[in-house]
Amino acid sequence: MKWEKTITTEQEYEKTLARLSEIFQADADSAEGMEAELLVTLVDKYEKEHYPISLPDPIDAMRETMERKGFKAKDLIPAIGSKTTVSLVLNRKRALTIDMIRNLSVLLGLPLEVLIQPYKLDGKPEKVNP
């Protein structure tokens, strides 16, 4: 099968997935292996355009990461500031600042793209980080 263009329809996408499943285990240096590599790239591009995955809410992502890493609120003090500020941020009463976002990204290992998103503050409309 010859692949000369990007995937533009759902039918082409399904056809590409079917072919990919046939050759996925091929040796990387073989013709089928190189075809599989190309198809993975085409499928990835199509999925990013047609099935985008939304990023998690910044505060939810922080809380989940804290739980996974066994962090307590006090562990965020070096990244956010005082115990009071940590509490305000985690309870959605204060927005993250750019400095907090940078620090939390390093401390928690969360991508900046997740932390910089607008989010709701204590029942108020979504707030863009200052």
What does this structure look like?
This is HTH-type transcriptional regulator/antitoxin HigA. The protein is mostly helical and 130 residues long. It folds into two domains: 41 residues; 70 residues, 434 Repressor (Amino-terminal Domain) (Orthogonal Bundle). Helix 1 packs antiparallel against helix 2. It is elongated. The protein starts with 9 loop residues before the first helix and ends with a strand.
Mean pLDDT: 91
Can you tell me the CATH topology of the largest domain?
434 Repressor (Amino-terminal Domain)
Shape verdict:
elongated
Number of helix segments?
7
CATH top level class name of the largest domain: Mainly Alpha
Q: What are the defining features of this structure?
A:
434 Repressor (Amino-terminal Domain); about 130 residues; two-stranded antiparallel sheet; elongated; 2 strands; mainly alpha; about 5% strand; 2 domains
Secondary structure layout plus pairing:
Blueprint: H1 10-23, H2 31-50, H3 58-69, H4 77-80, H5 83-90, H6 98-108, H7 112-115, E1 119-120, E2 126-127
Antiparallel strand pairs: 1-2
GO molecular function: core promoter sequence-specific DNA binding
Protein name: HTH-type transcriptional regulator/antitoxin HigA
Domain HTH cro/C1-type: 82-115
